[in-house]
Amino acid sequence: MKNLFSLKGKKAVITGGAGVLGSAISEGLGKAGAEIALCDIIDTDKIVEKFKREGIKAKGYYIDVMSSEKIKNCRDKVIKDFKQIDILVNCAGGNRKEATTSKDLSFFDLPLPALEKVIGLNLFGGAILPSQVFGKNMIKNKSASIINISSMNALRPLTRIPGYSAAKAAVSNFTQWLAVHFAREYNKNLRVNAIAPGFFLTQQNRFLLLNEKGNLTARGKTIIAHTPMGEFGKPEDLIGVCIWLASDAAKFVTGTVIPIDGGFSAFSGV
Asked: Which of 84, 91, 120, 218 has the smallest count of CB within 10 Å of its CB?
C-alpha cells in the first residue's frame, strides 16, 4: 500500500510545462518519482535546472501544441531519450484580453481571430492534438494516464470570457469521450481524466482579478466571497490530485473531471 501513489520509473510529458500551473504539477510528479519531459514553446532551461537541483530527473523540449508536426517532432525526441511515455499532462492553455468582454469591448465586437486563438489553444492545442500524437504511443503501454486541464468555467460559465468558457467545456466533454474511446477501442488501462481548477492567479487572468495596485477587483472580491475556503488556489494545490490520477491508486478511474476549487462549485451563494 505504501507504494500506491509512487510514480517511480514512470515517464511523464507535460505540455505547457514552463507555465505557473504546469511547472508546479511537473515538480510534484517529479518528487513522486516520475522522470519529467518538460515541453513548452518558451524556454524551459531554468525550470529544468531547478528540478535537477532538487533531485528530479528532467529534460526540456520545444513544442508548439498548435502544430501536429511540431508535436510529433517533440514526441520523437522524448521517445528517443525516455523510451516510453506513461503520463501525459496537457497544461497548455490560457485566455486573451482581446477575447474578453469589457467596458471597451462588447460581446458584439469580439474579434473572431481572438476567439479562434483562445478556443484553438485550449481545445486543440490544450487537449486534442497532444492526445492524438502522444496517445498513439501510450496505447501500447500496460498502463498509462492522460490528464487534461479543464476549468470551473466548464461547470459554471463565467461572465466576460465566452471563448475560454466554451473551450474548457469542450475539454471536459472531450476528456470523457477519449476515456471511452481508448478503453473500448485500444487499451482499457490507458486512462483519461481532467482536473477543473477553480480560481488561481496566473498571468492570463491577473488583469481580471487584481488591479494595478495589486488589490482585488470587483470580480476578484465576488470570487472570494463565493469560495467557501476564502482564498485563491495555489499552484501546489493541484499536485496531489495529479499524482493520484497518474498513479496506480487511480487505476479504475477514467472519464472524470475533478474540481479543485476551494468549494466554489458546491456553494449556492446562500
From this structure: 218
